[in-house]
From TrEMBL:
Keywords assigned: Signal
Domain of life: Bacteria
Signal peptide, first to last residue: 1-21
Taxonomy of the source species: Bacteria, Pseudomonadati, Pseudomonadota, Gammaproteobacteria, Cellvibrionales
Native source organism of the sequence: Microbulbifer echini
Protein name: DUF2846 domain-containing protein
Amino acid sequence: MFNRLMIVFLGVLFFSGCATQSNHMTKVTPESVITKPEEGKALIHFIRPSNYGGAVQSTIYNESNYLGTVSAQTRVAYQADPGKHMFMVIGENADFLEANLLENKTYYVLVSPRMGVWKARFSLNPASGDVSQQQIDSWYNSTTEVVPNEAGLDWAKSKASEIEKLKSKYLPKWQQKAEGDKQRLKPESGI
C-alpha cells in the first residue's frame, strides 16, 4: 500500500509543476519575436502553454530536422517552405502531424503532454478551424518564444541516430491509424 501511495505522490508532484526551461534553448528578446511569415514562407508556432509535466521537455522536428525543444509555457516559431511536411514530436514516444502549408500564412500547433510510463508523452494538435482565435491568443500570450542555442544544436546532432530509431518505430504506427485519427494541419487553417 505504501509503495502505491508513494508512486501516486511522485507522479502528481512530477506532472503538476516544476516547470523548467531546456538549456538547449534561449529566450527570444521582445524585439526578435517572430510575428509574421517571411516572404514566400509559412510560419508555424509550436505552443506549449500547459505547465502539466513541466519538468519534461519535448523536441520538435520537421522530418528529421531539429526545430527546437519545447518546455512548459514556451513556443517555437518555424519559418517553413510552403507545401507538405511531416512534423514529429519526441518525448517518451514519437507522434506526428502531417501539414500542407500555404505561403504567407501563420499556423498554430498545440504541443500537448500526457501521462507516459517513464516520462511524459506528447502529441501535436493543430488549430485547424476547431479552436477560436481567442483561445489561440491565450495560448500564445501565456508562452515565451525560444530558439535553439549551440548546446541544443550539438545535442540534436549527438542524438540523431536515436531520433531516427524512434521515428522508424512510431511512424508506421501513425500511418496505420484510421484516416480520421491522424493529426493534420489543413492549408486553410492559416491566418
